[in-house]
Amino acid sequence: DGGITQSPKYLFRKEGQNVTLSCEQNLNHDAMYWYRQDPGQGLRLIYYSQIVNDFQKGDIAEGYSVSREKKESFPLTVTSAQKNPTAFYLCATRLTDANTGELFFGEGSRLTVL
Amino acid sequence: AQRVTQPEKLLSVFKGAPVELKCNYSYSGSPELFWYVQYSRQRLQLLLRHISRESIKGFTADLNKGETSFHLKKPFAQEEDSAMYYCAGKGGSEKLVFGKGTKLTVNP
C-alpha cells in the first residue's frame, strides 16, 4: 500500500543518542526527500536526493545526515547535534521524468526525545 | 528567497458556506504551485496543481501573477473538507517549499 514505507512509526530516544529513520520506496521514483513537520511551522525540507549517491541540504539540514546508496532507500539519521529533534518526520518521493512537482508522501515517523 | 505564505493558521466555516484558503508566493520566474491536503490520520497528498487548471473535490485555485497569489476556493464547503491544507511552490530546482498550513474546520 502506498509504495513508501517509513519505519518506525514511533520512536523514543534519549538525549545524546543518534537515531536513524528508514524510508523505502517501490515506486521507482528518482527523487527522495525528508521533511520535518512541526505544529505551526508547516513542512521544512531537511535533505533531498535526485539520484543515487547524491544528495543536497535543504533548509534545516544541521544536525541531520542522510545517505542514498540505493534508489529505493533514503535513511535519515538524527544526530545528537540536532538541538530540537522531537518532531514528525515525513519522507517523500517524486518521479522526475513526469516533470511535475508532485510529491508522494509516506505515513511519517514521530520521534520523541526524552 | 523562495517563500510561500499562508496567513491563516485556522479557518472555520459552516457547512454549505463558501471557503477560501489564502496563499501568497514569492518566487522569481514562473513557479509551479500546488495545494496539498492532509485529512485526519491520512497521508499528505496532492489536491491540485496550477498547471492543470482542474477542479478536485469542488476545489479550484487560480494563479494570480499580479497579486502573486494562489488562493484555494470552494463555493459550498462540506464537513469532509475539514483537514490541514498546505500551499507549496517549486521553482527551477528540485526543492518544493511549503507554507505553514491552514487548518480548515467545517462545522455542521
Secondary structure elements and pairings:
The complex is a heterodimer of chains A (114) and B (108).
Chain A: E1 4-7, E2 10-13, E3 19-25, E4 31-38, E5 42-51, E6 54-57, E7 64-66, E8 76-78, E9 87-94, E10 104-105, E11 109-113
Parallel strand pairs in A: 2-11
Antiparallel strand pairs in A: 1-3, 3-8, 4-5, 4-9, 5-6, 7-8, 9-10, 9-11
Chain B: E1 3-5, E2 10-14, E3 19-21, E4 24-26, E5 32-38, E6 45-49, E7 60-61, E8 72-74, E9 83-90, E10 96-98, E11 102-107
Parallel strand pairs in B: 2-11
Antiparallel strand pairs in B: 1-4, 3-8, 5-6, 5-9, 7-8, 9-10, 9-11
Structural descriptors:
heterodimer; A: 114 residues; seven-stranded mixed β-sheet; four-stranded antiparallel β-sheet; 11 strands; B: 108 residues; mainly beta; 0% helix
Structure description:
The complex is a heterodimer of chains A (114) and B (108). Chain A is an all-beta fold and 114 residues long. Helix content of chain A is 0%, strand content 51%. Chain A has no helices and eleven strands. In chain A, the strands form two sheets. In chain A, strands 2, 4, 5, 6, 9, 10 and 11 form a seven-stranded mixed beta sheet that branches. Chain A has a four-stranded antiparallel beta sheet with strand order 1-3-8-7, with no helix packed on it. The model of chain A has no long low-confidence stretch (mean pLDDT 92). Chain B is mostly beta strands and 108 residues long. Chain B has strands at 3-5, 10-14, 19-21, 24-26, 32-38, 45-49, 60-61, 72-74, 83-90, 96-98, 102-107. In chain B, the strands form three sheets. In chain B, strands 2, 5, 6, 9, 10 and 11 form a six-stranded mixed beta sheet that branches. Chain B has a three-stranded antiparallel beta sheet with strand order 3-8-7, with no helix packed on it. A two-stranded antiparallel sheet of chain B has the order 1-4. In chain B, a hairpin with a 6-residue loop joins β5 and β6. The mean pLDDT of chain B is 91.
